[in-house]
Amino acid sequence: MAERIKQQSPEYAKMSQATAISLGLVRGRMYRGAANRCVNLLVHYPEGCSANCAYCGLAKKRPGSYKDKSFIHVAWPVFPMDEIIDAINNAPSYVKRTCISMITNGKCRLATLEMIRRLKDKAPLPISILITPTILNENDLVEMKNNGADKIGVAIDLATPELFDKYRGKGVSGPHRWEKYWEILKKSLEIFRYPNVGAHLMVGMGETEEQMVYLMDRLWHMGVESHLFSFFAEEDSKLADRPQPPWPAYLRIQLARYIIEEKLGSSRGMRFDREGRILDFGLASDLLESVITYGKPFMTTGCSGPDGEVACNRPFGNCLPDVKQWNYPYIPNEEELGLIRQNIFKTGN
Ligand code: SF4
Predict the structure, then answer these.
(1) If you measure from the C-alpha of residue 152 to the centroid of ligand 1, how many angstroms do you get, rounded to a whole number?
(2) Closest CA to 340 of 325, 330, 329
(3) Phi, psi at residue 227, to the nearest 5°?
(4) Pocket lining: 302 vs ligand 1, CB cutoff 6 Å
(5) Helix (H) or strand (E) holding 2
(6) Does residue 134 contact residue 174 with C-beta atoms inside 8 Å?
(7) CA 248, CA 188: separation in Å to the nearest integer?
(8) Which of 5, 35, 99, 304 is the most exposed place for a label (fewest CB within 10 A)?
(9) To the nearest whole number, what is the mean pLDDT of the chain?
(10) Helix axes 334-343, 285-294, angle to 10 degrees
């Protein structure tokens, strides 16, 4: 028991299985040679997270101890911070960023600040923080920046205030509030500036494609990039039986994000059907075809590295390894692009 209590942040952190493979701390290989380009860390306490988000593997009411709970479907083994820092210093050159994900725990704020300080002092990679707005104020964001973080992620996750309240707030007796998330998102933007703030958005929670497109457009015009995720049920979680969003719908939302953020068009130029599905992206058909063929719209979106390319590519965080993926961690190959073309305009499930 004493040993278990000692294992907590900032002395220890959890690390995603894919990161542990990239850094050589765990043996393994990934489908199609996918490589995780980000060191994804999670603050660790034996008592875990006190929130109860319905879709999250770490939710307080999901059975199991925090140490062993999966998160976005993969195991997160615990390592001492010193070992993590050594591994980052010996990381392959394709690893371009470190990210610390916070949880909802009163101790998490100070531990995160200390982890940023150590990583900045002793390792070369830029540092993102996926923050928990509920336990933070403006001054904390300033301290994170002063300690060495350069990017902030805010997991808005839900497309509307009603869905947010249902799955993260009152609907699950959880502490999170839509207004607080947006207040801290705006403060993050004032402090970290464009292009250093991203919003995590999760597709498949009951929103329409139109609602998600308008949200991505709103965020983009504020100066916030959208980092897309697809719902993928965690075993034994409150939503364990809920299916992933239809693949065609996810592909359309990915393509709409790309069109908006690459300034090829906007939500105003797109048309939607009565169920809110995208009918028309507002681009000439030859341009639309070349954007699809480019493949990049269907890759994972997340914080970039110093090379400007997405570093946080989260291989298979949203789906099982297959030709059909809800976020490709690499440029889709010909077979995968063929499937995307066959499916992207399908309106059924
Ligand atoms: S996109 Fe990745 S690196 Fe950026 S905040 Fe989210 S989890 Fe962290």
Answers:
(1) 8
(2) 325
(3) -105, 110
(4) yes
(5) helix 2-6
(6) no
(7) 33
(8) 5
(9) 93
(10) 140
CA nearest ligand 1 atom 4, residue: 303
DSSP string of 159-184, one letter each residue:
SSHHHHHHHHSGGGT----HHHHHHH
E strand or H helix at 128, and its extent? strand 127-131
For 211-226, the pLDDT digits (tens) are 999 999 999 999 999 9
Gap between the Cα atoms of 279 and 213, Å rounded: 12
- Is 130's C-beta closer than 6 angstroms to any atom of ligand 1? yes
Indicate whether residue 42 lines ligand 1 (CB < 6 A): no
The fold adopted by the segment(s) 2-343 is: TIM Barrel (3.20.20)
Question: Residue range 48-69: average pLDDT?
Answer: 76
Q: Are 144 and 120 in contact (CB under 8 A)?
A: no
Tell me the mean pLDDT in the region 294-306. 97
The domain limits of the chain are 2-343
Q: Does any ligand 1 atom lie closer than 6 A to the CB of residue 37? A: no
Give the tens place of pLDDT for each residue, 61-109: 666 665 666 665 667 899 999 999 999 999 999 999 999 999 999 999 9
- Cα of 302 vs centre of ligand 1, distance in Å, is 6
CA of 280 to the centre of ligand 1 (A): 30
Decide: residue 91, CB within 10 A, 0-12 exposed, 13-18 middle, 19+ buried. buried
Tell me how far the alpha carbon of residue 170 lies from the centroid of ligand 1, in angstroms: 26
111: left (phi over 0), alpha (psi -120 to 50) or beta: alpha
Tell me how far the alpha carbon of residue 277 lies from the centroid of ligand 1, in angstroms: 28
Q: Are 227 and 198 in contact (CB under 8 A)?
A: yes
Nearest alpha-carbon partner for 129 in 232, 265, 114, 83: 114
Residue 169 buriedness (CB in 10 A; 0-12 / 13-18 / 19+): buried
* Residue in 71, 125, 128 to alter for ligand 1 test, most ligand atoms within 8 A of Cβ: 128
